[in-house]
Amino acid sequence: MVPGGTTAITGEVYAVDDPTLATIDRLEDHPHFYRRTAICLADGRLVEAYLLDRDRAAGPPRLPPGDWREQR
After folding, report:
1. Which of 12, 14, 66, 69 has its CA 20 to 30 A from that of 43?
2. Which letter does DSSP use for residue 51 in this model?
3. In this structure, are residues 32 and 18 in contact, taking their beta carbons and an 8 Å threshold?
């Protein structure tokens, strides 16, 4: 996902404790590679997601259906 994107995606939302969040931040290299950012879901809930800067996302292909599981 990139900031300002307009395509809906399919995903999962998890509640995690602070130590787990810190571990995920390290894995995603937040804030240097991915940035953990608040996003609004279709149902209006605000959650945090890891977004990739548009410059870094210039090369990878876009998933038209918005769901990586449908790319088989």
Report:
1. 69
2. E
3. no
Tokens representing 11 are 């995903």
DSSP state of 13: -
- What are the CA-CA distances from residue 3 to residues 20, 31, 54, 55, 59 (Å)? 24, 14, 7, 11, 16
Cα(41)–Cα(20) distance, rounded to whole angstroms? 22
**pLDDT per residue rounded down to tens, the chain (72 residues):** 889 888 888 889 999 999 999 999 999 999 999 999 999 998 999 999 999 988 887 776 666 666 767 765
Nearest to 8 by CA among 41, 35, 34, 47: 41
Half-sphere exposure of 44 (CA within 13 A, CB side): 0
